[in-house]
Design goal:
It contains ten helices and seven strands. With 273 residues, the protein is of the alpha/beta class. Strands 2, 3, 4, 6 and 7 form a five-stranded parallel beta sheet that branches. A two-stranded parallel sheet has the order 1-5.
Length: 273
């Protein structure tokens, strides 16, 4: 039996990836604690993340064009409508990675928010059913939760294109086959910056950090939440206010992930916009 035929090889590769991810996570946390240079440190670490997890999309190649992908996770929530108000005021579109179970909790309010997301030119992405880390699930458990969330999106008339794992980490051997089979982009939607808005309550600082360190093709990640995590939505509103202020001064536009990726592909094809 050759090394290529070794059935234990994928497991060793996953263990190695997890070890390296822990190291990178520690380095990113160090960058978070070094607030004045946090965003720029994370940009410098991006090539490492891309080497470790080539199955993920951490940024988009748009050349020198000042275009950023804005993504917002863990909705819908009571803050979705105010967030949409702010985005509309500044002519910004975003990709909302929703937890399908939030639709049940939010009821009519959630349905209304989702319909407004779609009617105003934003995008819905699959973020599984709930905020249970995807890497903690077995292959069959992941397939079931992914498919259930996918069906909820399709019931809304959406043909989902992007999948972002709950918890941020991914195991391509376990997860990617289901994602590809469902017709999504054959990659995991990641981010260019560690989303420390979930655990450090400094929204204006975070908005200033990522706004100042954002670069052409960066993917930004913010969060909403319900229940015990409801405070995330209020922090995202405050983060967005500062983020928009900083990026607009720098001449950047924020658009949904699909808009940024499609623009990149059109430029590659020599079409432009």
């Amino acid at each position: 039996m050759t090394k290529a035929d070794d059935p234990a090889k994928p497991k060793r590769r996953r263990r190695k990836r997890r070890r390296v991810l822990k190291i990178v996570g520690g380095l990113l946390l160090l960058g978070v604690l070094m607030l004045p240079a946090c965003g720029h440190i994370q940009v410098a670490l991006l090539p490492i993340a891309e080497t470790i997890g080539p199955e993920g999309t951490f940024r988009v190649d748009v050349g020198d064009e000042k275009l950023i992908a804005l993504t917002i996770d863990d909705g819908p929530s009571d803050h979705t409508e105010p967030i949409l108000d702010l985005l509309a005021e500044h002519d910004i579109t975003a990709t909302f990675f929703i937890h399908a179970d939030h639709l049940d909790v939010m009821g009519e309010r959630g349905d209304k928010a989702v319909q407004r997301i779609l009617s105003e030119g934003h995008e819905l992405g699959n973020h599984t059913l709930s905020d249970v880390p995807s890497v903690s699930l077995s292959e069959s458990e992941f397939a079931a939760t992914f498919s259930a969330a996918d069906q909820r999106l399709r019931d809304l008339g959406v043909e989902p294109r992007w999948f972002r794992t709950a918890g941020g980490n991914f195991d391509p051997d376990v997860m990617l086959p289901a994602v590809v089979a469902a017709g999504y982009e054959p990659t995991f939607a990641m981010g260019s910056f560690m989303p420390w808005d979930t655990f450090l309550h400094l929204p204006e600082t975070y908005g200033r950090q990522i706004g100042g360190a954002a670069f052409p093709g960066a993917i930004l990640v913010l969060h909403e939440g319900i229940g015990e995590q409801a405070g995330r939505g209020e922090r995202t509103l405050r983060t967005l206010e500062k983020l928009i202020e900083v990026t607009e001064k720098r001449g950047y536009r924020m658009r949904s992930l699909s808009e940024v990726v499609d623009h990149s592909r059109q430029v590659d094809a020599g079409q432009g916009l």
